[in-house]
Write a structure and sequence with these properties.
The protein is built from 12 helices and 13 strands. It is of the alpha/beta class and about 325 residues long. Strands 6, 7, 8, 9, 12 and 13 form a 6-stranded mixed β-sheet that branches. The protein has a 5-stranded mixed β-sheet with strand order 3-2-1-4-5, with helices on both faces. Strands 10-11 form a two-stranded antiparallel sheet. It comes from Methanosarcina mazei (Methanosarcina frisia).
Amino acid sequence: MNSKTIGIDIGGANTKLASSDGTIVELHYLPLWKNTMLPEVLKEISQRLKPENVAVVMTGELADCFEDKEQGIRFIKENVDSAFGSGKVSYINSQGRFRKENDPLRDLAAANWAASARLIGEEIGDCIFVDVGSTTSDIIPVISGEHRAGHTDFERLLRSELVYAGTLRTNLAALLEKVKLEKGICRTSSELFATTADAYLILGEINEDKYTCETADGVGRSKIEAMRRIARLVCADLSEVGETEVYEIAEQVKEKQVSALTEAISEVAERNRLEKIAAAGLGEFLISEAAERLGFECISVAGRWGEEISKVFPAYAAARLLDKYSELIVSE
């Protein structure tokens, strides 16, 4: 392992990178749908780190600034190749394998979880790899070193291997149709008033440093500002619902997300006869609670590789795989 091999995970909202030895870990908030500075950031990374080899995974091709996934893949690939030089770059596909020259380009879509699952299979063995990030939750069965998940996000949604909720960017209205308050059961407003980052900030599960996405109202990330946003979920302000009720709403957000995660993990576990979880991502705290409810063993990626690596695990896994298999990439 060395710092000259880096992995890059280019998502719709975040671009993450890690070196194969874990000494370099970075997260850049770059929402592709806003026509961000991705080309410039990639060039800056290239000039600053001067990597010898680069492994790339992506999910950003789904961003709605692209007409379809292939256009998104081409945009990302062209900018990565331009920044680093195509001779240095290897791409990992949805099978968790390095892409050969004539392989379908579309196989690169939504492949970051496949890199993680391959490394987990080699390092930990048979398990369900669960990664709860800022936006989504991956629930990947890994057996005999290979993932047994669907190869596209659509297939994985059908199989409960993808739950579209995360610890930062998920609209609370998408999780909660109603909330229980002192005055009764209250319907929520289907506006982007607050996100899961607000709930977990209030509950103390994350701090302001980990609140890396934009806020729903474009203002600050303090607890009082998060409370104001959550009050708007029920079309109120803090004169109508107090701190206690806002806290209770945040607790209901967490309960809903843990319940959904538990249900999906249970379905994947039953289908694949697995009872061990490897947990990664900013939302490891949600995974550990779901595992406890199911009575499953839970191995923490943060405990094994470090908290910072856990948050960018697909990038780290890509770098590690490139270090390990660089001489075999052509034959893969």
